Amino acid sequence: MGTRWISGAERLGDGSIGGPMDTTGLPPRVVWHSTESGHGNASFNGVRDYLINIGAEPHILYDPVTDRLGQYGPLDQSARALRNDGASRTNRTGRACIQIEVLARAKTPFTNYWKPGKNFRALMAAIRSWGVPDVFPMGAPPVYPGGSRRTRSVWLNEAGHYCHANIPGNDHGDPGAISRTRLFAAAPGGSTGGGTEKPKPPAYPGSAKVRYGASGPQVLAVDKALIRKGYGKYLTSGPSDYYGKTTRAGVKAFQKDQGWTGADADGAVGPETWRRLMK
Question: Which of 248, 265, 244, 245 minimizes the C-alpha distance to 256?
Answer without folding.
Answer: 265
